[in-house]
Amino acid sequence: MYWRIKVVGFKLLSGLPGGSALYRFSQKHITKSLVLTRNRALQKVKVGTRYFEWLTDNDPDRTVAGGVHLDFGSGWHPTIPLLFHTLGVRRQHLFDIKPILDRRMLQQTVSIFREIQTDPDWPRKTTPSRALPDLANLSLSEYLDSLGTSYHAPYAEQFSTLARTVDLVTSTQVLFHVPRTALASTFKQIFGVLKPGGHFMATIHLQDILAGSPNNRVAKFHQFRYSPETWNRWFSSDLMSYNRLRAPDYLSLLKTAGFQVRHFEVEPGTEADHQALERTPIAECFKHYSWKDLAARHLFFVAQKP
Predict the structure, then answer these.
(1) Is 115 within 8 Å of 171 (Cβ atoms)?
(2) Residue 222, phi then psi, degrees to nearest 5
(3) What is the rounded distance in angstroms from the CA atom of residue 170 to the CA atom of residue 87?
(4) Tell me: the pLDDT tens digits for 252-263?
(5) What is the DSSP letter of 235?
(6) Element at 149 (helix H, strand E)
(7) What's the pTM value of the predicted model, to 2 decimals?
(8) CA 279 to CA 301: how far, in whole Å?
(9) Which residues touch 30 (CB under 8 Å, ≥6 apart)?
(10) Tens digit of each residue's pLDDT (9 = 90 or more) over 33-66
C-alpha cells in the first residue's frame, strides 16, 4: 500500500505549480532524505575511489589527476567531486537537471568528508595529494570556484562549450532515472565533451528502488509487470522516473554513441531473486530478456572514446 501512496503523491506534485519546490522542501525539512549521513558519504567515497583506482590500474597514462572531470547528476552532496579535488583533479564541472545543491548542503558535505578522511575505513590505497579546505564564510559559488569547480543546473547548454575538453565523465546512480530516448542523446553528448581517449564511468542500480525499501511493501520485481503505456501513465512522473533498462540496453546505447566498452561488470541476481521472478507475471515488453538480465542487481561500466 505504501508504494501506491508514494506514486500517487509524486504524480500529484508533478502536476501542481511549484510541486517540485514543495517536494524539495519536504525532503529537506520533513522526510530529511536530503540530510547527509556519514554512511552515505562513505559509500560515495568508495565509489569515487573505485573510479580513480580503475584508471590507475588499467590506464595509468590517462589518470584524471591534473585533468578535467565532469560529474553528470552530481546531486545534493558532491562527495565524489570533493574526493577528486583532494586527489589532484584540476578542473571539475557538476551537472544537474535542476539546482539542488545549496550552501547548507555543501557545508554538511565538506564537514563530513573532512571527518571521513581520518576514519579507519578510508580507502588507504588512494592517497590525497591536497587537503580539502573548510567552507569558512565563503558562498557556494565562491567555495566551488576556489576548488576549480563549476555547478551547472540546468546543464543543457554547457555540453557544446565543453567539446573535447574533458578527461573523465562519471555518473553515480543517476542514469536509471533518464528515459531511453534522452539517454541515447546524453551518451552522444558525453562522447562529444570527452577528449580522444577520455573515459566515461558509471554505476547503475538495476533493481527497482521502490522494492528496495521494506516500508513500501512492493513485490521485488513489480516493475516488470507493466507495459510501457501503463508504467508511464500510472507510475512515471517528473519527480519519480525509472527507465527500467537492463544491462544489455546500456551496452547497446554506449556502442551506438561511439564508445569502446573497456569494462562492463554486472552483479548477478541471487537464487532467491530467480525464485521471485518465477512468481512474477512478466509483461510482454520484458519477455525477450533472459532471467539473468532481469534478475541483475547492479552495473558498473567503463567506456572510452577512441
Answers:
(1) no
(2) -65, -25
(3) 15
(4) 999 999 999 999
(5) I
(6) strand 149-152
(7) 0.88
(8) 30
(9) none
(10) 567 899 999 999 999 999 999 999 999 888 788 8
For residues 243 and 177, give the distance between their C-alpha atoms in angstroms, rounded to a whole number.
Answer: 6
83 burial (CB, 10 Å; 0-12 / 13-18 / 19+) is buried
Cα–Cα dist 231/220, whole Å: 16
d(CA 150, CA 161): 13
Look-up of cell digits 527500467: 244
User: Rounded to 5 degrees, what angle do the CA atoms 273, 206, 41 make?
Assistant: 110
At residue 299, the 3 state secondary structure works out as strand
Q: What is the residue whose three cell numbers read 512474477?
A: 280
Contacts of 175 (CB under 8 A, 6+ apart): 73, 183, 202, 204, 250
Distances (CA, A) of 190 to 43, 123, 157, 236: 25, 29, 13, 25
Q: Which amino acid is at 211?
A: A
